Amino acid sequence: MTPAKNWIALSVLCLGLLGCHGGKGSSGLTPVTFQTDWYPQPEQGGFYEAQLKGYYRQEGLDVTITPGGPYVIADQQVSTGAAQFGMGSSDRILEADSQGQSLVAVAATMQHDPQGIMLHANSPVHDFPDLEGHTVAVKPGSTWFEYLIARYKLTNVRETPATYSIATFLQDPNYIQQIFVTSEPYFARKSGAPVRTLLISDTGYAPYRAFFTSRDYLTQHRDVVAKFVRASLRGWRDYIADPSAVNARLLKLNPAMSLEQMQFTCQALKDGHFIYPDDDPSRTGDFNAARWSQMYKQLVDLKLIQHPIDPATAYTMQFVNKP
């Protein structure tokens, strides 16, 4: 990914956006701002599908999708009211709630986080315990990395800041970096580098990728939340079935991407069974209560929960799989 180029090309999309208090605009539709976690890409495809096919408008919503980036923090945007919905991970939502931000996950975007690490095919690292003695490029403050260190009792793992690029990886045969398995491996292989990946969720640390709102907004505008969730999940089912129309739109919104790259990502989403629980489209967006409780316990064990909360308050399943 190339944040600088993307940000210049897309910053204009973030201008002129209006806040929403649940009231209808001049069009008779309720304006809603949705803050994504990155620049337009297939990992957000279901939301763009719902917008392109008019599913939001059919629900009476005028949805503005605001691109994210490395310097945009979606949970802060939502908790301050700058956006009504945002994208993030269930571990981050739990941490934010323990810090008093009062966020509520309303549906899963992905059943498993595509977060992982990428290494060269001939690397001596074949599993996570093998990271002992190696350096890993990681986004500073990554909770999953703290979990790895604790889970495998790693005492000699060096951490270097992630650069959101594979340039150093291509130059250094010993380089190991944080990735999304749906993204960076495409660029590495296209550049001729045979790679292997290790998925963080295989360690037992398995957050959801989710979209969320604030508890205040949920309380005051439950009908809007229900409509947004319903249209979004409908969009995701359509997108996974046929991503072609939305990918063409994403290509215009984010010219730094290529159609081939998006096709790789869409196939990775399918091959990794990221979207549907047990490959069942009817359960798109599902949460499992036990997984939320397990994630909360893992965060408590890591001493990352600042103040105890009931993990059941950080999510709701009342809007998923409802007609």
Description:
This protein is an alpha/beta fold. It has two domains: about 5-110 and about 205-315, D-Maltodextrin-Binding Protein, domain 2; about 115-205, D-Maltodextrin-Binding Protein, domain 2. It contains 13 helices and ten strands. The chain has helices at about 5-10, 45-50, 55-60, 75-80, 90-100, 145-150, 165-170, 185-190, 215-220, 220-240, 245-255, 260-270, 290-300, and strands at about 30-35, 60-65, 85-90, 105-110, 115-120, 135-140, 160, 175-180, 195-200, 210-215. A five-stranded mixed β-sheet has the order 2-1-3-10-4. It has a three-stranded antiparallel β-sheet with strand order 8-5-9, covered by helices on one side. The longest helix has 20 residues, at about 220-240. The model is unreliable at about 1-20 (pLDDT under 50).
Could you list some keywords that capture this structure?
five-stranded mixed sheet; disordered N terminus; single chain; D-Maltodextrin-Binding Protein, domain 2; 13 helices; 2 domains; 323 residues; 10 strands; three-stranded antiparallel sheet; alpha/beta
Describe the strand arrangement of the main beta sheet, using strand numbers.
2-1-3-10-4
Major pleated sheet: 5 strands, mixed
Q: Using the 3D structure, state the CATH architecture of the largest domain.
A: 3-Layer(aba) Sandwich
**How many β-strands, per DSSP?**
10
Could you say how many structural domains there are in total? Answer: 2
Helix/strand-derived category reads alpha/beta
Order of helices and strands: HEHHEHEHEEEHEHEHEEHHHHH
**Tally of helical segments:** 13
- What integer is the average pLDDT? 92
